[in-house]
Automatic annotation (TrEMBL):
InterPro entries: 2-HAD, HAD-like_sf, HAD-SF_hydro_IA, HAD_sf, PGP-like_dom2, S-2-haloacid_dehalogenase. Belongs to the HAD-like hydrolase superfamily. S-2-haloalkanoic acid dehalogenase family. This is Haloacid dehalogenase type II. Keywords: Hydrolase. It comes from Hymenobacter terrestris.
């Protein structure tokens, strides 16, 4: 970013798909349901019904919605519902995911450049802490924040603004870093800046503001931020 641009003082990181590689979970869900598109269908249901819960005020945590979405997926594919124990095994994989290869180099560069960094995820607090510990990322972040305490999912404006308030950072001086167009749209419409990482299969939302920064990897974003 140029010297006269509004360089953010706080970076908020999404976790699933942005920092963590969901490939292991994707493979397991696809194999379980014998479909190459099962994981995408399941993850879309997970996001869709988290928004339904937010709009209707009928909160369940991400794990509960993930479990329900596995039932919905089975029904959509004309398959029997999986036993609770099998669903639990599948969902447990979300806490055992590696970081994308570019993540530690990118976080290291940003940490060395002096940026404040926190996470903000739709995953429950306990799950997020297991995820980041397993991936070896915990030490990069000042705080690990989940929407669970708000009982309101991203991209609701409250999720971003309450994080800024908690960290005593102005929204305009805060940047969300994410690999989801719905997430960057939510942050920008709440008054934050946003950096979009173009992970394979991810797109920005054409009817939302263009992300402040775009890059194919986290180091690419870091280079633009550090200048």
């Amino acid at each position: 970013m140029s010297a006269d641009s509004n360089r953010p003082k706080l970076l908020i990181f999404d976790v699933n798909e942005t920092l963590l590689d969901l490939g292991k979970l994707q493979q397991a869900v696809n194999q379980e349901f014998k479909s190459e598109t099962a994981f995408k269908q399941w993850f879309s249901l997970l996001l869709q019904y988290s928004l339904v819960d937010t709009v209707t005020g009928n909160y369940h945590n991400f794990g509960q919605i993930g479990d329900a979405a596995l039932d919905m997926l089975a029904q959509a594919l004309g398959q029997p519902a999986r036993p609770a124990s099998r669903k639990k095994e599948l969902l447990a994989l979300i806490a055992e995911l590696p970081p994308h290869p570019d993540v530690i180099p990118g976080l290291t560069a940003l940490q060395q450049a002096g940026f404040r960094m926190v996470t903000l995820t739709n995953s429950p607090d306990a799950t997020m802490r297991k995820q980041l510990a397993y991936a070896g990322l915990t030490g990069f972040f000042e705080q690990l924040i989940s929407i669970d305490s708000l009982k309101c999912y991203k991209p609701h404006p409250t999720t971003y603004l309450s994080t800024c308030q908690q960290l005593q950072a102005a929204p305009a001086e805060t940047m969300l870093v994410a690999a989801h167009g719905w997430d960057t749209a939510g942050a920008q419409l709440a008054g934050l800046q946003a950096a979009f990482i173009t992970r394979p299969g991810q797109q920005t939302y054409p009817l939302a503001p263009t992300p402040t920064l775009t890059g194919s990897t986290l180091p690419a974003i870091a280079r633009q931020l550090i200048g």
